[in-house]
Amino acid sequence: MKVGEVLTEHKKIKWHECQVCGMPAYYRITYLASNCRANPASSAYGKDDCSWCSDADGYACKKHEREVSQDAPMGMSWCSAFPLKSFKHMGFY
C-alpha cells in the first residue's frame, strides 16, 4: 500500500434474534449433550472445563433469557449464558 491510497474494509456482523419474541438477542445460551464429557460426539468430550463448549446454541433477549435457558433441545441440557457483547471478537454485535 502506498501513501494516499484508500483502504476499504468490510466487516460482517452476525445478528441474532430472540427465539421467543424476535427482538435483537442479548444473550447466547449454550447447551451440551447428555453425558458430554464421555460422549465423543460432544464438544466437551474429555475436557475438564466445558463452560465454553457448545453442542447447540440459543439466543434470547434480556426479557426471555430464563425461558430460552429452560427450553433445551431434546437430549441436551443448559450449559451457560453469555452476553453477546463479550463475543465482539467473533463478529457478534
Structural commentary:
The chain contains one helix and three strands; from the N terminus they run E-E-H-E. Helix content is 6%, strand content 22%. A three-stranded antiparallel β-sheet has the order 2-1-3. The protein is mainly beta and 93 residues long. The chain has a domain at 27-87. The longest helix has 6 residues, at 65-70. The protein starts with 26 loop residues before the first strand and ends in a 10-residue tail after the last strand. The protein is flat, with a radius of gyration of 17 Å. The mean pLDDT is 86.
User: What are the secondary-structure elements, in order, as H or E?
Assistant: EEHE
Distance between the termini: 30 Å
- Trace the largest sheet across and list its strands: 2-1-3
Low-pLDDT stretches are none
- Overall strand count: 3
- Overall pLDDT: 86
> What percent of residues are in strands?
15-25%
Brief characterization of the structure:
This protein has one helix at 65-70; strands spanning 27-33, 56-60, 76-83. The chain has 93 residues and is mostly beta strands. The protein is flat, with a radius of gyration of 17 Å.
